[in-house]
């Protein structure tokens, strides 16, 4: 099969232009549907990193001096351009990640555009406060940018992650150097082009490609004031520790092993739909997926049977076909990791209800997989799999469900399905997770904070809450009377 060549004009986008340095390590972009190489780029060399940070530093001061209305206008124009190019961006995203067009058309660039529009609108509202002090003096505060922010992305939502980081950072008057995942380097370059076309000054948003070593070099550079990472917990630990050396601000959007608790009074079809979306959307490669589905014993058999029945409706295959609902895994490596977990699930005694097989042929396909009779100690119930594997666990009482749902080192998301109003809120309050759902799952509107507790992260993306993570408050005390001293 032949593919269009997705190789961009050059690997990096710095100071308003594409930049290449072929001495950097080769990055081959693989189309997960076929395994074919569809683009070749190069990892950033120290000289490229230097250029990018230098450009960002230079651009930031003038950008921060603009009014919020002016900054917001650029972001809102970028949102419009992104929406206008949604189809082309979705084609890139589908080739980069393998996610089907039925998803990328509605969940990737569109969500990035929402972030640009939302933070574009907020930019003009970022004001400090006035604090009166007895005796006539007063204090006012200024909301100031941090300076240069580094964004580091994962491969599951490339343009969404880039936009969710760039939009609040730029709205607050910062500049950004963004490093996409080496697996999915293409769409962040499109965001850079869009921002330039929308009127962002050269150097404001730069993209450098690279493996982990490039991310690591960015994190410790003295010109960097903040690091926002979307990635796994092990990478988060390293990046957080490295950022601490310079007391840099951090946002950590890390992994999860989130619970969905389904009580016996829940609407069965809604709960099943949520479990399907929360385990199989993006072929299971979503950080906040509800991979531990706790179902009350009275509903348990019916629930498992219904999930299995509905799974038969999955359309697995060519991600460019709009009928497809399950694409390939992002890479052969990720597919093999997931197959390894399926083997562990079998070995540890979970009951395989459906799926579980590698799909032979081209591409990195795996069947959506349903395990029942999973117990809390099994690896598939404890570790993040990051693939299409749903584990269903049985519970008897509310207290037990809450205790077991919280018995994890992660705390990204959690969901409860019940028609008992007070129980719904009681359980949501008891969940140890940053983003909780009642009779819904995995929806992330830009107006709502998103982020994790426990090992799943630090800080929040989206919403007004993100502003606090891309700005700092300066306190100005104003004395109106005489200044007194003891001698
Ligand atoms: P990863 O941790 O392997 O890589 C993430 C990014 O960090 C990549 O760009 C990588 O090159 C870079 N990196 C690796 N080592 C580094 C280092 N030492 N210093 C600086 N940067 C380094 O994650 P992944 O496999 O790309 O993504 C999957 C993970 O991301 C899952 O754990 C998933 O849960 C998580 N994730 C979280 C969210 C969220 O919002 N919480 C969203 C999507 C994905």
Automatic annotation (TrEMBL):
Coiled coil: none
Active-site feature positions: 253
EC number: 1.2.1.8
InterPro entries linked: Ald_DH/histidinol_DH (IPR016161), Ald_DH_C (IPR016163), Ald_DH_CS_CYS (IPR016160), Ald_DH_CS_GLU (IPR029510), Ald_DH_N (IPR016162), Aldehyde_DH_dom (IPR015590), BADH (IPR011264)
Cited Pfam families: Aldedh
Broad EC category: oxidoreductase
Example GO biological process: glycine betaine biosynthetic process from choline
Top-level taxon of origin: Bacteria
Keywords in alphabetical order: Metal-binding, NAD, Oxidation, Oxidoreductase, Potassium
GO molecular function: betaine-aldehyde dehydrogenase (NAD+) activity; metal ion binding
SUPFAM superfamilies: ALDH-like
Start and end residues of each Aldehyde dehydrogenase domain: 18-476
Similarity comment: family membership: Belongs to the aldehyde dehydrogenase family.
Annotated NCBIfam families: BADH, PRK13252.1
Name of this protein: Betaine-aldehyde dehydrogenase
Annotated source species: Aquimixticola soesokkakensis
Classification lineage: Bacteria, Pseudomonadati, Pseudomonadota, Alphaproteobacteria, Rhodobacterales
């Amino acid at each position: 099969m032949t593919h269009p060549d997705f190789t961009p004009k050059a690997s990096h986008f710095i100071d308003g232009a594409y930049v290449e340095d072929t001495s950097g390590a080769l990055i081959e972009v693989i189309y997960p549907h076929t395994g074919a190489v569809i683009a070749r780029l190069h990892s950033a060399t120290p000289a490229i990193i230097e250029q990018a940070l230098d450009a960002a530093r230079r651009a930031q001061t003038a950008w921060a001096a603009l009014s919020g209305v002016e900054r917001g206008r650029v972001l809102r124009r970028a949102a419009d351009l992104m929406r206008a190019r949604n189809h082309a961006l979705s084609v890139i995203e589908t080739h980069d990640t393998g996610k089907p067009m039925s998803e990328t058309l509605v969940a990737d660039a569109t969500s990035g555009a929402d972030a640009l529009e939302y933070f574009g609108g907020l930019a003009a509202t970022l004001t400090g406060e006035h604090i009166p002090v007895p005796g006539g003096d007063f204090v006012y505060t200024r909301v100031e940018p941090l300076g240069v922010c580094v964004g580091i992305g994962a491969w599951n939502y490339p343009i969404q992650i880039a936009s969710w980081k760039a939009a609040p950072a730029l709205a607050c008057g910062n500049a950004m150097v963004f490093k996409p995942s080496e697996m999915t380097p293409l769409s962040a370059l499109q965001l850079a082009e869009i921002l330039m076309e929308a009127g962002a000054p050269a150097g404001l948003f730069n993209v450098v490609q690279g493996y982990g070593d490039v991310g690591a070099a960015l994190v410790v550079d003295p010109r960097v004031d903040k690091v926002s990472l979307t990635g796994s917990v092990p990478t988060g630990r390293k990046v957080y520790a490295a950022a601490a050396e310079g007391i840099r601000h951090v946002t950590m959007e890390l992994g999860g092993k989130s619970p969905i608790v389904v009580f016996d009074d829940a609407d069965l079809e809604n709960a099943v739909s949520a479990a399907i979306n929360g385990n199989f959307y993006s072929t299971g490669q979503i950080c906040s997926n509800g991979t531990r589905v706790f179902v009350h014993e009275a509903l348990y058999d019916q629930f498992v049977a219904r999930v299995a029945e509905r799974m038969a409706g999955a359309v697995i295959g060519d991600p460019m076909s709009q009928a497809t609902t399950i694409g390939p895994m992002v890479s052969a490596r990720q597919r093999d990791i997931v197959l390894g977990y399926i083997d562990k699930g079998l070995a540890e005694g979970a009951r395989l209800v459906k799926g579980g097989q590698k799909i032979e042929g081209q591409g990195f396909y795996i069947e959506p997989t349903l395990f029942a009779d999973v117990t809390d100690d099994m690896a598939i119930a404890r570790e993040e799999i990051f693939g299409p594997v749903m584990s269903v666990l049985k519970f008897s009482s509310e207290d037990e469900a809450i205790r077991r749902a919280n018995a994890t080192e992660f705390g990204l998301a959690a969901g409860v399905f019940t028609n008992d109003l007070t129980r719904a809120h009681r359980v949501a309050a008891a969940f140890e997770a940053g983003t909780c759902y009642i009779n819904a799952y995995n929806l992330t509107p830009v107006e709502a904070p998103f982020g994790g507790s426990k090992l799943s992260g630090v800080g929040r993306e989206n919403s007004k809450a993100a502003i606090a993570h891309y700005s700092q408050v300066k306190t100005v005390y104003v004395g109106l009377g005489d200044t007194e001293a003891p001698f």
